[in-house]
Here is the input.
Amino acid sequence: MNPAAAGDTPAPGLLSIGEVLAELRTEFPDVTISKIRFLEAEGLVEPARSRSGYRKFSRADVARLRFVLLSQRDHYLPLRVIKDQLAQSGSSDDDRGAASAGRPPRALVSVEPGHFAPPADDVRLSARELAEAAGISEEQVADCVQHGLVSMRPGTTWFDADALAVAVVVKEMARYGLEARHLRAFRTAADREVGLVQQVVTPLARQRHPEARARAQETAREMAALSVRLHAALVRAGLGPDLAG
Here is the structure.
């Protein structure tokens, strides 16, 4: 339960939403005030209120926000899962320490349905640098481009973090004798999934309320995670019990 609404004079240790935003942006540059309000509306954090209605965040509130943002960015978890884990985080001393430090407890760390964190804007690689970073040849990079697996950032002459993530997986698949031309089906399937997600998310993003963008982003993340689960389930079912184990 949150403390009673604070007075208009800031209480020691309590932060305004602007101060929280400034602190979080050092680690999460894409976070916005709308995002914080959205997380509050979803019950992930419950700041106190002054008599004038201003939000007053404690250090525990900031830790919860950092916990949520880390879980979304690094482990791509839906908000409902994060909320459940936060509710259960008092079950052990280790998990209480994790929540207070703003990092996922052990149960969260093991759940990684996909890698959908926004790409880092500072990753700018030439074809040669991409090859070196991913551990593949420049010829393999060219094959990935030819078969639509990677592309330069639109309007630029460099590859970004998404291209690097794909190239790393291409390297791992090559261990099993698969080349870029064999992986085009994944590109086709991904494009179809993107289309389905956009059908759901675009109307949400066009809504006029302040939290619309944050809600659309969360919906996209959840649908992407579900698509990974569905894909894995279908592949497992297709392989049958003898091969899937």
